[in-house]
Amino acid sequence: MFRSLSIKNFRCFKDFKIEGLERVNLIGGANDVGKTCLLEAIFLLIGESNAFLLQRLNTHRGLRNSDLDDPDEIANWVWASYFHEYLIDRTIEIDGIVGSRTSRRLRLKVIPSAVAALALRPQENGAGSGSTNGHASKTLQADYSSSAPKQQRTAHLTIHRKEIEVQPPPPPPEVAGWFLAARGAPPVEEDAKLLDKLEVAKKTFDLIEPLQVLEPRLKALRTITGVGGTLIFGDVGLARLVPLGILGDGVNRFMSILLRIASAPKGVVLIDEIDSGFHYSKLEQVWEAIASAAVLFDVQIFATTHSFECIRTAHQAFKMQDHYGFRYFRLERQDGAVAAKGLDEETLDVVQHSDLEIR
User: Fold this and answer.
1) CA triplet 124, 129, 132: central angle to 5 degrees?
2) Is residue 93 one of the residues assigned to a domain?
3) Less packed terminus of the chain by CB within 10 Å, N or C?
4) 36 contacts 304 by C-beta, under 8 angstroms
5) Shortest CA distance to 207 belongs to which of 268, 248, 258?
6) Interior CA angle at 25 toward 21 and 29, to 5°?
7) Three-state DSSP class for 15?
């Protein structure tokens, strides 16, 4: 598990550190203070050399490659948003400490495409044609390294007519990880595939009991392929099975969270606006299920919220666990920079009976 993280020149973070991380970490703070940016930085760090994740993050925010024909303008549109104050002449640095000593590092910088082509040409099997098609723009170079096992890799991302080419192709990541965005349609088909994989692997994990917190009628789950694609259906005592999407946003969101925890053993799950879709009266039971699943699959969780009820109920749910394993962090702007203030179990005990504002 990550114990600390440091981020430089990424999105809103010029020089940011967060320490004292636990198994489950809830992130709060005002709008536009960097809660989602923190999740994005972690996502890139655990993604190893899968540089396609960079494009995916902008998609989560509703940003897509433009219809501009000029490749340099397209590159500025795509790459610049990742850099603090859009200063693409700097280097993004994301570092994490895992356990007591293991380090993971990611460096991102924009370089001329011709330089990337020269760097790639010596590789075997002809990988990396660089800017030879005449339409390439600036290239984003991603350098990844870890101390245990000791390794280092470099990938180059170049835009060719709105398409992003990654050379060399990324290997499988070392750390399993998922990012659940707050926006967009529920990942219903992806959820169905994850449920199938869990069943094929014979992983013992009861999804019915926690989901009954939100839908007491639920008796069974099945994946079925039909005109709507492969979806999860539920038995709620009617004459036929019904798509899980019919049962409400909360049930679908809860299913997505639990499936990703179960599908990332010894990994990391990132959840933006974790309380979205849940009635406040159910939050403590939701947190209890998340806490149990995180321990069962040895998963570290980072999530964001704007809700005091979400913070309070998470605190109560983790007090019932054998090990507390929870930390709340409030992000604040101090002298123009973003800082993280951590609140432990004892502090949260005091706060929930006071009028102090911690959201």
Assistant:
1) 150
2) no
3) C
4) yes
5) 258
6) 110
7) strand
Question: Residue 271's CB: how many other CB atoms inside 10 A?
Answer: 25
Show pLDDT as tens, one digit a residue, over the chain (359 residues).
999 999 999 999 999 999 999 999 999 999 999 999 999 999 999 885 565 677 677 777 766 665 556 667 767 777 888 999 999 999 999 999 998 778 999 999 998 876 655 555 544 443 333 333 444 567 888 898 988 778 888 888 777 655 677 777 777 777 889 999 887 777 889 999 999 988 877 676 889 999 999 999 999 999 999 877 899 999 999 999 999 989 989 999 999 999 999 999 999 999 999 999 999 999 999 999 999 999 999 999 999 999 999 999 999 999 999 899 999 999 999 888 999 999 999 999 888 777 666 76
Q: Would you say 285 and 314 are in contact if contact means Cβ atoms under 8 Å apart?
A: no
Number of domains in the chain: 1
Within 13 Å, how many C-alpha atoms sit on residue 168's CB side?
A: 13
163 within domain boundaries: no
Amino acid letter, residue 132: T
Contact between 271 and 180 (Cβ < 8 Å): yes
In a domain, 29, yes or no: no
Tokens of 304: 């964001």
The secondary structure element, H or E, covering residue 44 is: helix 35-46
Tell me the C-alpha distance between 359 and 353, whole Å. 15
CATH number, domain at 278? 3.40.50.300
Question: Residue 195: inside a domain, yes or no?
Answer: yes
pTM for this prediction? 0.89
